[in-house]
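Lab notebook, page 48
Experiment: co-folding of the full assembly
Goal: obtain a model of how the components sit together before planning crosslinking
Operator: M.T.
Materials (sequences as entered):
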Amino acid sequence: QQPVQSPQAVILREGEDAVINCSSSKALYSVHWYRQKHGEAPVFLMILLKGGEQKGHEKISASFNEKKQQSSLYLTASQLSYSGTYFCGTGNYNQGGKLIFGQGTELSVKP
Amino acid sequence: SQTIHQWPATLVQPVGSPLSLECTVEGTSNPNLYWYRQAAGRGLQLLFYSVGIGQISSEVPQNLSASRPQDRQFILSSKKLLLSDSGFYLCAWSVATRSEQYFGPGTRLTVT
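Observation: model returned without errors.
Model output:
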């Protein structure tokens, strides 16, 4: 039931773009995105609650395709501060309020 | 504004010893509370969650237990630690079931 994230790791140069995908085998009613710096707690980025919803936060945005049971996180014109591990957390209809997190995508932005 | 506290920040305990980790939330009432564990280099594993005082749901059968004695207090315990209990323990809260979760600073536990 754990959502699958891809890629597992990505290395970028400053200014490059990246897409992180999150796919579930179960019907979703919410997708949450978090970023975790090494040794720190995860930090909330955004939540998508409706199929087709898209959100943006500075140069980071996300989409939710409810029909395909997947979400994508888009990072444009990446900055050094974007480095970290990105997790998606999915809420499923038969799991109450629990989130199941993917295994994470490690993003490294180099100068 | 809301804040979440966890203590201790780091802990080194021998195998077989007891454990008590505490989490408190300020600035909100009746939050949903969660305990996660993160092994080194791994993802977040949900251990327990609570929607109210005395209401605890366990996700993974193990030698850990959780309690919620007060509205904004969540405690993770063990009677006898195992080596496999080592990890980064994170407490989180949310306003409601489908809302975003906010994580505390975490407790890094090493069982020796």
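Interpretation: Chain A touches chain B through 24 residues (CB under 8 Å).
Next step: discuss with group before ordering constructs.
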